[in-house]
Amino acid sequence: MIRLMNAYTSEIDDPETAVAELLEQIDRQGGLLKHTVGIAGCYYEFMETGVISALCERLPFDIVGCTVFGSATNAQYGMEQLSLAVLTSDDVCFSTAFSAPIFKDKVAEPVREAYRAARAGLPGDPSLIIAFVPISTDVAGDAILNQLDAESNGAPVFGTLSSDTSLTYENSCTFLNGESHQRKLALLRGMTLRQRAAALINVAAPQFRDHLRQECVELYGWTPEE
Question: Which residues of 101-128 are buried (b: 16+ CB within 10 A; e: fewer)?
């Protein structure tokens, strides 16, 4: 199970006030579980004024996302807004990664390295990938997604392209934990507890695998193969 908490702010100029508004909304929705990640979409000026950096410094988990033309929560929508979705779970693990810059003649390697970096944070293949793809005039989004699909063996991929209000997308960027870039792919991967247990058992020495399966039964009431 994944619990979702939403927050938003329209305070662009004062990072301290913006972060306080977001944290107050999150706190009202209950505590965090074992594994947590944040997904943010914002007007580009939230990057320039330091709100995203301040938010990443205050929160004890990864924040991944991109600039967007507009965003919405259950309570508010608008263009000059920052929306934050916090995913928290006891039985789903998350990992994130940022690629090297992507260019027309350099797509495969940055995507491959980013996927492998995100995979290193989990013991196996993901259940789901959320991709924040940099928009540019010389690299098509499907070229990046096709490479990601090949690397992930067809895992479901959701996400969006970075954007802004300019005709040339000069202010658009993706970001991870306060670092932003116009040409980097930001990735979020998720894996269920059952998948994680199966992956760990598969790499364990054969003489320990039955014992680990029994541990799963005693702790969770299931074996990974069920």
Answer: ebeeeebeebbebbbeebbeebbeebbb
Q: Model confidence over 167-186: pLDDT tens digits?
A: 888 999 999 999 999 999 99
pLDDT tens per residue across span 30-50: 899 999 999 999 999 999 999
How far is residue 103's CA from residue 139's CA, in Å, rounded to a whole number?
6
State how many domains the chain has. 1
Q: Which range of residues forms the domain containing residue 139?
A: 3-192
**Pairing outcome for strands 35-42 and 71-72:** unpaired
Query: For the purposes of burial, counting CB atoms within 10 Å of the CB of 165, is it exposed (0-12), middle (13-18) or buried (19 or more)?
Result: middle
Report the chain's terminal Cα–Cα distance, integer Å: 18
Q: In Å, how far from its chain's centre is CA 13? A: 25
Determine the angle formed by the axes of helices 15-28 and 51-58, rounding to 10 degrees: 50
Rounded to two decimals, what is the model's pTM?
Answer: 0.85
The CA distance from 123 to 119, in Å, is: 7
Domain assignment present for 27? yes
Instruction: Give the tokens for residue 138.
Output: 């010389």
